[in-house]
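Hello,

I think I submitted the iron/sulfur cluster job twice by accident. Can you confirm which output corresponds to this input? Input:
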Amino acid sequence: MSATEDSAACLRCGVCCFSRLETYVRVEGEDWARLGEEAERLAQFVGNRAYLRMHEGHCAALAERRAEDGAREWFCTIYERRPRVCRDLARGSPECAAERELKGARPQAAAG
Ligand code: SF4
Ligand code: SF4
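Support: Only one job matched these inputs. Its output is below.
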């Protein structure tokens, strides 16, 4: 699968963007800089470390929409500027498989 196809598939999935932890998506200095004006809105400090805000069981940057084929899909609204930890989780990796095994039902449960 090409990198473009990987991106498209992840943009429909979003499973690894679900968590009940407030400290789930670490935002390091370069991540904060990459977010630019969005940093204050999307990230917050917990102690002396920054994390993306969480909203209703998933990252605040994750949004739901209706695809052209009618299916519901979840997509990262900051995909090109997402933090390093998100970039490091490669589609098809053991970590990706573990996320889908553990949380695969959450997107549908959270669908509006
Ligand atoms: S990395 Fe895996 S779990 Fe995360 S969005 Fe992509 S396919 Fe889904
Ligand atoms: S920044 Fe994007 S890829 Fe990373 S957890 Fe949030 S929605 Fe998912």
